[in-house]
Amino acid sequence: MNSKIPGGITLLLILAAFSASAPMSVDMYLPSLPELARDLGTSSGQVQLTLSAFLLGFAFAPIVWGPLSDRYGRKPILYIGLTIFVGASVGAALSPSIDVLIGFRFLQALGGSAASALSRAIVRDRYGREDAARTLSLLFMVMSVAPMVAPILGGQVLVFFGWRAIFWALAGFGVICLMIAVYPLRETLAPDRRTTHHVGEMAKSYGALLRNRRFFGYALCQSLSFAAMFAYIAGSPFVLIELLGVAPELYGFLFAAHVVALMAGSFINSRLVTRLGVDRMLLIGTVGLASGGVLVLIAGATAAPLTVLLMAVVFMMLFVTMIGANATAGALSEFSHMAGTASGFLGMTQFAIGAGAGALVALFHDGTAVPLTAVMMAGGILALAVRLTILRGSAAAVEAD
Q1: What is the pLDDT of residues 252-294, one digit of tens each?
Q2: pLDDT tens digits, residue range 146-157?
Q3: What is the pLDDT of residue 385?
Q4: Which of 223, 234, 224 is nearest to 371 (CA)?
Q5: Nearest C-alpha neighbor of 341 from the set 87, 26, 29, 67
Q6: Handedness of CA 219, 221, 223, 224 (dihedral sign)
Q7: How far is 125 from 279, CA to CA, in rounded Å?
Q8: Which of 122-126, 128-132, 304-308 has the highest mean predicted lDDT (pLDDT)?
């Protein structure tokens, strides 16, 4: 087996930067929410809408960016999306009210989602099924640094410069991504592979995705694993800080523990997937995620000590990126001729179901860790059920493109 990273370290780092737009935009400003509410004279509920607006934009924008990139190429759409991201970040930094900030957060997500969604399409442009899964594993491992560093970095920027400086920093990040999209990134979608779809044909393309049993199954597996992770992101501040007494300034460091697990899972998958195959690794990942979910629920229901709960969460997170890489590679291999459209749909389902998981944690909030841990377990159990039912049987043929 070739030990070199397919396509080289440069491409991997470029795509990791693009993919980091979501965790950077979400996690970096989390420590600033109380100060942001005080400064703008609003409630914590209104401030939470800045996160909801971002997730809404990130969920649905890719279904537009994907088909457009299949028609016009990856780079022009990256230019448009990243320009919107930079402009919206500047607008957020200058926002005079919470309503204006909510609007700019939505626009920020619209722009950032182009970079995140198209990074997956670029991988599919370049590699076949198994190499795509391996490259995605390495990509997820590198980009996992963002959610580990972002809340720590955001806390420091907040202390020294205030909450608005966090959005200025995100604007600078967007400028860097825009520069590397111009050079050294090269266009990966050849003109003869581009579609000529108009709006009506784009809708038909999504219909084709939904009618494909295996694509739908892969999309659900990926989204349900992400839902388990996003439930933890949404509910862990309350559980760790208010329920288990973790100091707020230490939260970011404990948060980093599950990110290390995500990176470890990606590394393990990158070493095994070319030997065992996408579907077998997906089975291993869903079994592990479901088992970890049961352990997490037991820890939450029995009011286990912090270390026990964290160990269960870390075990569960080992399998999230393993599922994500293999489900993404499997899904895109079904529609390599319109990878941008397929990647856009994956992004939409991922963030829509993830946002729904976070909403469920809030809806059933009862002052204990049970709602959080129950939603996490449900994500794992459902992902395994999808793998054993919708994705049962022989794997799709490996494509030699």
Answers
A1: 778 788 888 988 998 899 889 889 999 999 999 999 999 999 9
A2: 777 887 788 788
A3: 97
A4: 234
A5: 67
A6: positive
A7: 20
A8: 304-308
Measuring CA to CA, how many Å separate 78 from each of 56, 113, 189, 300, 345? 20, 10, 13, 42, 17
Rounded-to-5 percentages of helix, strand, coil across the chain: 85, 0, 15
For residue 327, give every residue at least 6 positions away whose Cβ sits within 8 Å of its Cβ, in sequence order, or none.
218, 219, 221, 222, 225, 282
* Average predicted confidence (pLDDT) for the chain: 85
Q: State the DSSP string of 154-201.
A: HHHHHHHH-HHHHHHHHHHHHHHHHHHHHTT----S-GGG-----HHH
Alpha helices in 212-338 (DSSP H): 213-236, 248-276, 278-301, 306-317, 320-334
Sign for the pseudo-dihedral over CA of 186, 189, 190, 195: negative
Residues 6+ apart with CB under 8 A from 1: 274, 275
Would you identify the CATH topology of the domain 8-388?
Answer: Growth Hormone; Chain: A; (1.20.1250)
Instruction: Give the span between the Cα atoms of 315 and 88, in whole angstroms.
Output: 37
